[in-house]
Design brief:
The complex is a heterodimer of chains A (176) and B (265). By secondary structure, chain A is an all-alpha fold. Helices cover 67% and strands 0% of the residues of chain A. Chain A has one domain. In chain A, α2 packs across α6, α3 runs antiparallel to α4 and α4 packs antiparallel against α5. The longest helix of chain A is centred in the middle third of the chain and has 27 residues. With 265 residues, chain B is an alpha+beta fold. Chain B has a domain of 177 residues. Chain B contains 4 helices and 12 strands, in the order αααββββββββββββα. In chain B, the strands form 2 sheets. Chain B has a 6-stranded antiparallel barrel with strand order 1-2-5-4-3-12. In chain B, β4 and β5 form a beta hairpin. Chain B is elongated and about 115 Å long. The chains are: A mainly alpha (176), B alpha+beta (265). The interface between A and B is large, with 40 and 38 residues.
Chain lengths: 176, 265
C-alpha cells in the first residue's frame, strides 16, 4: 500500500463527495447522490489486508464526518470502522468480483453504515432529520448502481496504489 | 480497538470542540468544493437540545407564508422603483403619483387610448388627471371604472389640452390648445403668425394649471410649422409626442389633491 498515493486519491474522492460537482448527477428534490466515500471504503476493505483495511475504513469514516454538513464528528468514523472491519473479515467468505455482488455489497453496506450513523446522530442530538428513510434507501440504491463503475476506475489504480490481492487459497506452489 | 475508542471519543465530545475541524475543512477546500452546481436544498443544521424548533408541518406553513411575503416585497420594491423613476423625470419634486399597469392599448383612427389598472388608490382617480409615461405627459384620464381606468392619449382625435410652447434661451411660454389628430400626431392652431414665433424643434409642454399639474411637463416637439390653409394669418403646427404610448407597460397618474389628504384636513 502506497499511502501518499492513497491520500491523494482520498483527497479527490473527498472533494467529489463533499463538493458541488456531484450535484450534476444528484436527483432533483431530495438531492440524493451516490456515497463515494462509502464505495471507496467497500473497495479498499475488499482489497487490503485486515490491519490496513481497518485503518483505511476509520480514515474514510473520519473524512466523511469532517466533510459532512452536520459538523458532528464521530458517527461515520465509528460506522465506517466497524463495518469496514467486518467486511474485511467477510472477504474470506464472500468474493466481491462480479458487478452484481459489488452492487449488492455496496447497497447493504450503505444501509448498515448510514443507518448506524443516523442512530448515533440521533442519540447525540435527539433529533431525526427530514426524509431520513427515503434518503437512506435512495442513497443505498444510487450508490449500488453507481458503485460498480467507480469500482472499475479504482480497480484500474490497483497497481499504482500498491494494492496487491492476497492469494485466497494460499500461495501457488510450482513443481519442477 | 484504539481507532474505535477514538471514534467514540469524538462522538462524545461537545460539538463546540470539534467544530473547528469541519469549519477548517470547508474553509480550506471551499473554493474547490464550490465548483459545480450549487446545492438546491439549503444547508442542513441539526437542532441542538434546548434550541427553539417547530414541527415540519408548521415549518412548511411558515415557509409558504415567507415565500408569499417575499414575493409581495419584491412587487412593492418594483413599484417603488418605477414610481421613483417617474418622479425623477419630473422637473420638480411634484405631487403624489399613482402607479398603474397598462392592460390594453387602443390605437385606431377613432380612438387612441390605454386601459390601465391602478396598483392602488383607485378612489383617488378622476377624469382629467394627467398621465405620465416615460417622463412625459401622454394623456389624461377619460373614464374611471371600479378597478381600472381609461387614458385618452394626446393623439386621440377628441383630445384637447392646454399646452405651452417653449424654446431654450427664450423666457416664457406660448400658450395654446393642442388637438389630437388620431394619426399619432397632434395639432396646434389659432396662433397668429405675427405675434408668435414658433419653429420646428420647439418643445411642447403640458401647461401647469396648479389644479391638475404643478409644473410644465414635456409632451412632444414641433415637427412642422406651416401656414393654416383656412386662415393664412395663423400657424398650423404639427407636434409629435416624445413617448410612444403603446410601448408602455406602466404609467403614473398625477394626483395633485388626494382625497385622503382633503378628508384628513
Amino acid at each position: 500500500m502506497r499511502w501518499i498515493r492513497f491520500l491523494f486519491i482520498l483527497l479527490i474522492i473527498t472533494v467529489l463527495d463533499a463538493g458541488n460537482l456531484l450535484n450534476i448527477i444528484a436527483t432533483p428534490g431530495l438531492h440524493i447522490r451516490p456515497d463515494l466515500l462509502l464505495i471507496a471504503m467497500v473497495f479498499f476493505a475488499s482489497h487490503l489486508e485486515t490491519t490496513n483495511a481497518m485503518t483505511v475504513s476509520f480514515l474514510l469514516g473520519f473524512v466523511a464526518d469532517l466533510s459532512g454538513e452536520l459538523s458532528i464528528m464521530g458517527p461515520y468514523t465509528i460506522s465506517f470502522g466497524i463495518f469496514g472491519s467486518l467486511l474485511c473479515q467477510l472477504r474470506k467468505v464472500v468474493l466481491v468480483r462480479r458487478m452484481l455482488y459489488q452492487a449488492l455489497t455496496i447497497f447493504v453496506m450503505v444501509l448498515l453504515i448510514r443507518g448506524l450513523a443516523q442512530l448515533l446522530l440521533m442519540l447525540k442530538t435527539q433529533h431525526v432529520g427530514a426524509n431520513v428513510y427515503i434518503v437512506l434507501w435512495g442513497t443505498a440504491a444510487y450508490s449500488a448502481v453507481f458503485g460498480p463503475f467507480a469500482w472499475m476506475i479504482l480497480s484500474g489504480l490497483t497497481d499504482w496504489l500498491g494494492l496487491r490481492e492476497r492469494p485466497r487459497y494460499g500461495p501457488i506452489r510450482i513443481r519442477h | 480497538m484504539v481507532l474505535l475508542l477514538g471514534g467514540f471519543f469524538l462522538l462524545m465530545l461537545p460539538q463546540r470542540y470539534t467544530l473547528f475541524l469541519t469549519e477548517g475543512f470547508h474553509r480550506i477546500l471551499g473554493p474547490v468544493l464550490s465548483v459545480g452546481r450549487p446545492t438546491e436544498i439549503s444547508k442542513i443544521h441539526m437542532v441542538q437540545p434546548g434550541q427553539d424548533a417547530v414541527s415540519q408541518d408548521t415549518y412548511n406553513k411558515l415557509y409558504t407564508i415567507y415565500r408569499n411575503t417575499y414575493a409581495q416585497l419584491l412587487e412593492i420594491q418594483q413599484q417603488l422603483s418605477t414610481l421613483q423613476r417617474i418622479r425623477a423625470g419630473l422637473p420638480t419634486p411634484g405631487p403624489p403619483l399613482i402607479l398603474a399597469r397598462v392592460s390594453n392599448a387602443i390605437l385606431t383612427a377613432e380612438e387612441c387610448a390605454l386601459l390601465v389598472i391602478p396598483v392602488s388608490g383607485t378612489e383617488e382617480l378622476e377624469q382629467g388627471q394627467y398621465v405620465i409615461g416615460d417622463d412625459s405627459v401622454i394623456g389624461t384620464i377619460s373614464a374611471v371604472y371600479k378597478t381600472s381606468a381609461r387614458v385618452r392619449l394626446v393623439t386621440d382625435a377628441k383630445h384637447r389640452m392646454l399646452v405651452a410652447i417653449g424654446r431654450t434661451g427664450r423666457s416664457g411660454y406660448i400658450q395654446a390648445y393642442m388637438h389630437g389628430q388620431g394619426d399619432g400626431t397632434t395639432r396646434i392652431v389659432g396662433l397668429s403668425q405675427k405675434e408668435y414665433d414658433v419653429r420646428e424643434g420647439d418643445a411642447v409642454y403640458a401647461a401647469a394649471d396648479g389644479d391638475r399639474l404643478g409644473t410644465e411637463v414635456i409632451i412632444g416637439e414641433v415637427r412642422e410649422v406651416r401656414h393654416d390653409l383656412d386662415n393664412p394669418l395663423l400657424w398650423d403646427i404639427r407636434v409629435v409626442p416624445v413617448c410612444q404610448a403603446e410601448k408602455l407597460s406602466e404609467i403614473g397618474i398625477v394626483v395633485m389633491h388626494p382625497k385622503s389628504e382633503i378628508k384628513s384636513n
